[in-house]
Amino acid sequence: MYRYSAATLLRQAMTDQKGWPAAWRSTSPKARYSVLIVGGGGHGLATAYYLAKNHGITDVAVLEKGWIGGGNTGRNTTVVRSNYLFPESARFYDHSVKLYEGLSRELNFNIMFSQRGMVTLAHSRHDLEAQRRWANAMRLNGVDSELLDREGVRSLAPALDFSEEARFPILGGFVQKRGGTARHDAVAWAYARAASSMGVDIIENCEVEGFEIGPEGPTAVQTSRGRIKTGAVGLAVAGNSSLLAKQLGLRLPIDSLSLQAMVTEPVKPVLDTVVLSPAAAVYVSQSDKGELVIGGGLDLYTSYGQRGNLPTAQRILAGVLTLFPSFSRLRLLRQWAGTVDVVKDSSPIFGRSPIPNVFLNCGWGTGGFKAIPGGGWCFAHTIATGEHHPLTAPFALDRFEKGALIDEAAASGIAH
Fold it and tell me: Which residues, 6+ apart, have CB-to-CB distance to 382 below 8 Å?
């Protein structure tokens, strides 16, 4: 653990910042590793950490074609929650929330996890009925939820439009108080530092260009930094999952789409919870810096772009301003998009692939960030043992053969 005096911290912050120790080791690839994790985002780094911590496997390299956390991990809206309807989803995502609750202490790194709660709005009697079913299902699944009437919503988010003329009248909703937000880059850095300290090699600017597959599975991976031998490969590459799978001769039931996000200029505290409106297809929170963080629905065509399109941005902002008219005075500070991989039933693909010792962690759609600790925990188990973790076994690829789909988008309106 690094300790500095207040004077040292101030001097470093106000000067050229030389002298800070590197958070993780900068390494060149070795000739061989027992396990290669492709993807240096949250899921890949968490997997490497839990392989070392939980299973004692440290002969591991994380390969990242760019920089650590430069993909979807650094391009999301930071929401953490487990408000799902189906038992399979609820069990997994609540496990991830529980890991988030102790993550700063475990990794000795402040990930700024703020359990400010997440409020889902009801704008009609149909919404109210559906959300009663949703919230009660959460309780049956052991996940906290609390139904709200109109005044209950007002007490948590008074900036909403409660007028009689509101385009989306607010009749009530429900809240998961253990939900909230975390700092996305801090999560990546924390796992990277912890994994590196346990002997994992983190190799940036190392793009995978091909795989060598034998009768027992992978034998080597061709990269932009040379050939690396291995006996096991875990893919955790978010929106690029289809591209990497194609190199392996696999076709996954995935579409890659752009998901936009944007933030306003910083203002004084005005919103101390996360607000989601399924009807308006938007969600809003306020960062610790004061920026309003805004997200919405997917761009409605496949793309690997990281900007999104103007009509979708206009639709998202129109929804936000309908719910929060006072926000119209704010200036938009920046906008971006991430490439997300969306599965046909809107649930992830997780576990063994048809190729021995090649493992899949993909299809998280719009919800990969909140799944990082749970995904890493379960993916490490699968790679170490060769067996599905009980929490993620329902999300195996063979569910499409069995017809055992888990469609949260249809059930509760969550498109992950």
Answer: 350, 351, 352, 359, 388, 389, 392
